[in-house]
Amino acid sequence: MGASDWIQDKGKISGSPDREVRFNLAARAFAESQIRNRNPSDGGAGCPIVVEGKRDREALMALGFQGPIELINRGWDRSRLVAYFYDTYGTRNTIDGGPPLILLMDWDRTGGRIQNSLRERLNSLDVPIDESLRNVLLKSMKPEGKTVEALAPFANVLRSLIDIHLDSL
Prior knowledge:
The protein is of the alpha/beta class. Helices cover about 50% and strands about 10% of the residues. The model is unreliable at about 1-10 (pLDDT under 50).
């Protein structure tokens, strides 16, 4: 089923009720992560969200993320990347006291390996990570794709649901 099959009409998502439930779960998780990701001047915690590449960043921006988005594919080895995250963001978010990073790798096999590798390396430095968004997307958005960039075609539908959840949080 393509993105054109997902037509939003009067706040409803066309298709099965299961699809509506899954999209609402994803939208709530996105809203919660967007609040943490927002810059402190906008009422957020300035918590960066870490994704694999540029297209992932573009998909998140289409979904309404406005805070810092860090890329892992920047030509650095994992050790340098982990050291950069540690030096830049520390071991706790200074605003909300939570994990200093939201880690959102794709939910395919490669993304899972990267997620596990970064989690283990950061945890070894006493840096907790926020994986709640990925855990929800892994279950709720798998039929639509296994990558962050695969969410881009659904941005309009998800964005309106995210806005509803942002208003309620």
